[in-house]
Backbone:
């Protein structure tokens, strides 16, 4: 009875967030990094009043040690504190030491290191020696997209706007020996940048990337360019009442799909129809202008700046199966995932075969999610498509077998734990893989038995981070243990304080208000279902 009461409490809470448009939007935590970048960019663009609102938020949300973390609940870190100090015109230390520290920290991946140093330079904190910044090869943007994976780009697939804009400002202030060659391509790359900018003006619907682009183009002498002005418009439209910005506008498609899964079809027909129509509307029907991903996938948001990716596509496919979607639509999404799979058997986030930079490599949680989506639709697709799905599953299982740690756990890509010394979250990764393996038959897929046993043993002994409802709920979902602790932490399904377990690009921490609610409801329902199954077996 206690469990059923908690389920009803959580169910009502979750359904209360369903909008008339057939979606959940959730709410991402405010981000000091996003706020510093957006405010500084707006100040450079002459939008002083909005910039001052952001600066006040930063002042009011400084940690006791004088620094800033990615979210208000996060401990201070060097990168976010550096950008906040630049925005507020505070001392940051020796230019040479700052440059070396940032470049050493991010290594060969220049996706964030060069934008960070660019803001430091534009704020005057690195003096006037632009040689402290690597020159991003913006001219490579003129190559057809299919060649990008061969060009060894120093940034990941989603960072093309930064490659262009930041490459331009460095070129403007410190022309290299290739200056003449690059100068002739400036107009062309600006046209490319304009062509991939979404209607909202926000690249990836994200304040940091849009802010970096805006400040760089302004610094390169293109403040009045349509791309720059559209970025400013996006930042103006997405500032919160308190003067802050989140790391992205929302994860609406993601939390909508996860909410459907947690509710297990416990929706009215009208609600199912509305959500189904919304998810179908957000499926990409044409090649994506940014990553050139084929039609058929889903991104994390309904906004145009979202990019189709493996995790959101798998989640949408599972939700649509619960909502009674027609098979042909699902087949497009399934084929999209099949085409994305890397040679190693794992699933990357956005683009196949780009390499080993973060978010372009294969990872266990995405691979497991795709397997789970394939199994959900197994009985609905034709035999020819199932054969392809089966081959993909077997290849994915071989990848998961190689990626399982010696202790039995798996590590995810998009989630972490600030309490872990390495900031890893094996509870999330292991739980998600085990959820997928649970859908498979050991008779049909023999290699799963050992993996499953080792993973389950590790998870049974795992201790969730202090105050993390999200991790505790995942543990309960798979093992059925610690249910009393979960009921206590959520006050029987009524209180859901979020923890910053999400990792945005370049390891930026965020919390999402719906995560603890969604994960808890799924765990409680699963526990009730397993309890009833146990009662039936005893009879």
Residues:
């Amino acid at each position: 009875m206690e469990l059923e009461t908690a389920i009803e409490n959580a169910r009502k809470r979750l359904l209360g967030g369903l909008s008339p448009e057939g979606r959940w939007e959730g709410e991402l935590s405010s981000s000091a990094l996003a706020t510093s970048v957006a405010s500084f960019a707006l100040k450079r663009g002459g939008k002083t009043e909005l910039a001052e609102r952001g600066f006040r938020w930063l002042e009011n949300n400084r940690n006791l040690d004088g620094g800033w973390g990615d979210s208000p609940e996060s401990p201070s870190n060097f990168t976010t504190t550096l950008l906040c100090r630049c925005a507020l015109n505070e001392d940051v230390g020796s230019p040479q030491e700052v440059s070396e520290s940032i470049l050493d920290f991010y290594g060969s991946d220049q996706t964030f290191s060069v934008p960070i140093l660019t803001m430091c330079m534009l704020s005057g904190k690195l003096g006037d020696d632009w040689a402290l910044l690597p020159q991003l090869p913006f001219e490579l943007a003129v190559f057809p997209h299919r060649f990008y994976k061969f060009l060894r780009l120093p940034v990941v697939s989603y960072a093309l706007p930064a490659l262009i804009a930041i490459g331009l400002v460095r070129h403007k202030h410190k022309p290299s020996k290739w200056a003449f060659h690059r100068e002739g391509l400036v107009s062309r790359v600006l046209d490319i940048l304009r062509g991939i900018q979404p209607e909202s003006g926000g690249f990836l619907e994200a304040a940091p990337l849009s802010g970096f682009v805006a400040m760089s183009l302004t610094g390169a002498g293109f403040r009045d360019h349509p791309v720059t002005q559209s970025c400013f418009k996006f930042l103006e439209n997405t500032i919160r009442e308190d003067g802050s910005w989140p790391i992205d506008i929302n994860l609406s498609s993601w939390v909508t799909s996860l909410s459907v899964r947690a509710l297990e079809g416990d929706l009215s027909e009208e609600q199912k129809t509305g959500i189904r129509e919304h998810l179908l509307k957000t499926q990409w029907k044409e090649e994506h202008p940014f990553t050139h991903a084929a039609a058929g996938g889903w991104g994390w948001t309904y906004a145009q700046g979202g990019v189709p990716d493996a995790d959101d596509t798998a989640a949408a496919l599972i939700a649509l199966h619960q909502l009674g979607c027609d098979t042909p639509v699902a087949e497009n999404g399934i084929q999209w995932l099949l085409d994305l799979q890397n040679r190693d058997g794992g699933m990357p986030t956005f683009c196949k075969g780009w390499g080993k930079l973060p978010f372009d490599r294969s990872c266990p949680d995405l691979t497991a999610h795709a397997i789970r989506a394939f199994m959900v639709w197994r009985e609905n697709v034709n035999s020819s498509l199932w054969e392809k799905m089966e081959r993909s599953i077997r290849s994915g299982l071989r990848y998961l077998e190689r990626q399982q740690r010696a202790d039995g756990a798996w590590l995810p890509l998009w989630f972490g734990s600030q309490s872990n010394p390495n900031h890893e979250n094996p509870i999330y990764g292991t739980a998600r893989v085990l959820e997928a393996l649970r859908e498979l038959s050991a008779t049909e897929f023999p290699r799963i038995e050992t993996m499953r046993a080792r993973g389950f043993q590790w998870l049974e002994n795992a201790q969730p981070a202090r105050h993390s409802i999200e991790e505790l709920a995942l543990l309960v979902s798979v093992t059925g243990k610690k249910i009393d602790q979960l009921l206590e932490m959520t006050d029987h399904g009524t209180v859901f304080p979020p923890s910053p377990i999400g990792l945005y690009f370049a390891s930026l921490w965020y919390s999402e208000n719906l995560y603890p609610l969604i994960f808890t409801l799924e765990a409680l329902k699963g526990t009730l279902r397993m309890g009833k199954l146990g009662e039936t077996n005893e009879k």
